[in-house]
Design a protein that fits this description.
Elements lengths: L2 H4 L9 E4 L12 E4 L2 E5 L6 H10 L7 E4 L16 H9 L9 H17 L3 H6 L5 H25 L10 H12 L3 E5 L4 E5 L6 E3 L5 H15 L5 E5 L7 H14 L4 E6 L2 H6 L4 E9 L2 E6 L8 H10 L3 E4 L6 H9 L4 E4 L3 H13 L1 H4 L3 E4 L7 H9 L2 E2 L13 H10 L4 H36 L9 H13 L3 H18 L2 H7 L20 H10 L5 H6 L10
Parallel strand pairs: 3-9, 3-10, 4-8, 8-9, 12-13, 12-14, 14-15
Antiparallel strand pairs: 1-2, 5-6, 6-7, 10-11
Length: about 550
């Protein structure tokens, strides 16, 4: 039997709602959170996720529908389990065992308090942290429902002349899902116990009590969700615990398909789990203080990938968007230069600008300061000023790679290697000027292409006549002088070289592979100079972050 055989037919999903408590962060925010199948509440440890779960279970307007699976749960598989009356088994699992001297009316009135007493020792505060021990009640319900269904089937078959199909009981549904997730294992249900065998060695059987933590938690979570009452709001605290990442998505996708009548509310600090729940409504909870929750709905936006967005929200530190990719030397250097920030590479210059714009536009919601830093490249001062007004800054060098060439770092590395710092810097600066001189025509040409392209991008016309449009474009184009741009770039660069202005050369020179050739000046393996700088920064040697501050914007002053 496979997962698909027990999956109900799902029609077009309907929007569902879960009532949340008011948010102290955004009092005007709608407390009815809409979703299709699930809601993911993400927050750091101590932010109030478990308190939110108990609020939904005991205080929320939909508390009668809430079936909460606590984070602190006993995973001891019962050694033996026997069926009891189905109604009693169901009540014991959902609420608490009925007291022997209570009639049904008393039980219906008192079952909420019985549940609180039986599961959590009578205190809502205990419900947040008390370990839940309902594995035995779960297995008893599975056996009891199966026994009741089989007796009913036997009675129907005895009265019928035709063969009646066997009932698809909860035990068999649990078995099908469990074996679909763990295809190398098989569940065996005996009269009063559960056993496990390996597919390849069916004769080697062991008790369910000997299951691994992962095997037991999968059984437990499947049973909990399949046994939840109809139309439940299933609140799952720490849905990723004891689960391998390869199985997490498969498990919860399967359970959401198996119970389309229910709403799943996941409470997690695992940002990758939150990002992997594609299509779920995402909620960020930041704190619980003075009996009030601070939370907000994470908006849909396309500029920042959702996993990145969630990571930034979870860090709570100011954010610095940079160019490049994760793991690059550039982003590593910026992390050392800005230790109080979450440094996040997002790709190109335009991606940095867009990400900064989007994240800053949502600051009233998440209260996290954000900035960007991009390479200076061939930017004009007007562009730099416009970027700064949008919270995006540039260093005092053409590109981040040139930060590895600044005099302070060159001398710091030489001192660490017990080399004459002045000689090392003279050798490096001579090499840089030689490369810049050799690269002059290419530098001037690249700058010219950039400036011409920039000017052409500024052309606009309201004309609806092609002839008039063409004339306007020709007039505009005739005002662009590539030769003058090229000559000015060449003259500026030559002046820097002639004056021996090393700082200006680093501000103008845009050639990415210079650092690869510096190792020879320090007597180290070729291509390892950059790694040496980063190693020194990591070990707090040579004052690397302090040296970098001379060439980087003072973003801390903007906080």
């Amino acid at each position: 039997m496979t997962d698909s055989e027990i999956t109900p037919v799902v029609t077009e999903p309907q929007t569902k709602k879960v009532s949340f408590p008011p948010s102290a962060l955004l009092p005007e925010q709608n407390t009815e959170v809409k979703c299709q199948t699930s809601i993911v509440v993400v927050g750091a440890n101590g932010s109030g996720k478990s308190r939110l779960g108990t609020w939904l279970e005991f205080k929320g307007p939909q508390k009668e529908r809430v079936h909460r699976i606590a984070a602190q749960r006993s995973l001891v598989f019962p050694e033996n389990s026997s069926p009891i009356g189905f109604e009693k088994a169901r009540d014991s699992f959902y609420w608490a065992p009925p007291p022997p001297n209570w009639d049904r009316e008393q039980y219906e009135r008192g079952k909420p308090q019985l549940r609180l007493q039986h599961r959590y020792g009578g205190s809502v505060l205990n419900a947040e942290t008390a370990p839940l021990s309902d594995f035995e009640a779960l297995v008893t319900l599975l056996f009891s429902e199966n026994y009741t269904a089989l007796l009913s089937h036997e009675e129907q078959q005895r009265k019928s002349q035709e063969l009646i199909p066997m009932p698809d009981t909860l035990i068999r549904k649990v078995q099908a899902l469990w074996e679909n997730l763990l295809p190398s294992r098989a569940l065996i249900f005996k009269s009063s116990e559960v056993q496990v065998s390996q597919r390849e060695l069916p004769d080697e059987v062991y008790s369910a009590r000997a299951m691994s933590d992962g095997e037991r938690v999968i059984f437990y979570l499947i049973g909990q969700c399949l046994c939840a009452p109809d139309d439940s709001i299933i609140v799952v605290d720490e849905p990723e615990i004891h689960l391998h990442k390869a199985i997490q998505n498969l498990l919860w996708d399967s359970l959401e398909r198996a119970r389309p009548d229910c709403i799943y509310v996941y409470l997690t600090h695992d940002l990758s789990f939150a990002a992997d729940r594609i299509g779920s409504t995402k909620i960020c909870i930041s704190e619980f203080r003075n009996a009030e929750f601070s939370w907000y709905a994470i908006p849909d936006q396309r500029e920042i990938p959702e996993d990145v967005f969630l990571e930034l929200l979870g860090s709570r530190k100011p954010v610095l968007f940079v160019e490049g990719t994760s793991g690059s030397h550039d982003s590593a250097l910026y992390r050392h230069a800005f230790p109080g920030f979450t440094v996040k590479p997002v790709g190109s210059c335009s991606a940095v600008v867009n990400a900064t714009k989007v994240f800053r536009s949502l600051e009233d919601m998440h209260h996290i300061k954000s900035f960007g830093i991009v390479d200076r490249d061939y930017l004009e001062q007007g562009q730099i000023d416009a970027y700064e007004r949008a919270g995006v800054f540039v260093p005092l060098v053409a590109e981040v790679e040139n930060l590895f060439l600044v005099p302070e770092l060159v001398k710091a590395v030489s001192q660490q290697l017990v080399i004459d710092p002045e000689k090392a810097f003279n050798d490096v600066s001579t090499f840089v000027f030689e490369e810049f001189t050799r690269w002059l025509p290419t530098h001037a040409m690249e700058l010219t292409k950039y400036r011409v392209s920039l000017e052409l991008g500024r052309f606009s016309s309201c004309s609806s006549d092609i002839a008039h449009f063409s004339q306007e474009f020709k007039v505009f184009q005739d005002r662009i002088y590539p030769e003058s741009i090229y000559a000015a770039a060449l003259a500026e660069a030559q002046a820097a070289i002639s004056a021996g202005d090393y700082s200006l050369a680093l501000r103008l020179f845009n050639k990415k592979d210079l650092t690869k050739n510096l190792s020879r000046f320090f007597g180290i393996t070729r291509g390892t100079y950059v790694e040496k700088v980063l190693e020194m920064a990591k070990r707090n040697l040579g004052c690397v972050p302090q040296h970098l501050q001379n060439y980087l914007p003072d973003i801390n002053a903007c906080l």
